[in-house]
Automatic annotation (TrEMBL):
<dbReference type="InterPro" id="IPR017938">
    <property type="entry name" value="Riboflavin_synthase-like_b-brl"/>
</dbReference>
<dbReference type="InterPro" id="IPR050415">
    <property type="entry name" value="MRET"/>
</dbReference>
<protein>
    <recommendedName>
        <fullName>FAD-binding FR-type domain-containing protein</fullName>
    </recommendedName>
</protein>
<feature type="domain" description="FAD-binding FR-type">
    <location>
        <begin position="15"/>
        <end position="114"/>
    </location>
</feature>
<dbReference type="GO" id="GO:0016491">
    <property type="term" value="F:oxidoreductase activity"/>
</dbReference>
<dbReference type="InterPro" id="IPR017927">
    <property type="entry name" value="FAD-bd_FR_type"/>
</dbReference>
<feature type="region of interest" description="Disordered">
    <location>
        <begin position="1"/>
        <end position="25"/>
    </location>
</feature>
Length: 141
């Protein structure tokens, strides 16, 4: 692993200030792991939300964003793709075990879904599928 940071320092408002415990892990494929987190408090989490998690790679703290796949109260599910040449983010997240704790930000939504439209067309592919993953069920309500 390289000791170089992959991202610039996060603004103070975007740095993890809460915590969450890992409650469950499930491999969705050989390279995608679903991680269930129990946050220290419940959050509003509209479709398209993500959290920033403090990760430690090569002995240096950094931050990575992960889309929230599903949320119920204080439980959040994220999916993390394992990158073979990871320099911190996915390697750190794939080492987590139930009972571990991570530092995280509250969910933030940069892909808001405007409700009330007569029709929706949702397109996504690859890693881009996770932000709108729960949008269809929200649009049907």
């Amino acid at each position: 692993m390289s000791g170089a940071s992959l991202t610039a320092a996060a603004p103070a408002s975007d740095q993890p200030r809460g915590s969450a415990g890992v409650t469950a892990l499930r491999d969705l494929s050989p390279t995608i792991r679903e991680i269930t987190l129990r946050a220290d408090r419940a959050f509003a989490c509209p479709p398209g939300s993500h959290i920033r998690v403090a990760v430690n790679g090569a002995g240096r703290e950094d931050y990575r964003s992960y889309s929230v796949v599903e949320q119920a109260g204080d439980l959040l599910r994220i999916a993390v793709k394992r990158q073979p040449l990871s320099r911190g983010g996915s390697a750190f997240m794939w080492r987590l075990q139930p009972g571990d704790t991570v530092r995280m930000t509250p969910p933030r939504c940069d892909f808001p879904l405007t409700l009330g439209a007569p029709h929706y067309l949702l397109l996504a592919g690859g890693v881009g599928i996770t932000p709108p993953n729960n949008a269809p069920s929200a649009a049907r309500r």
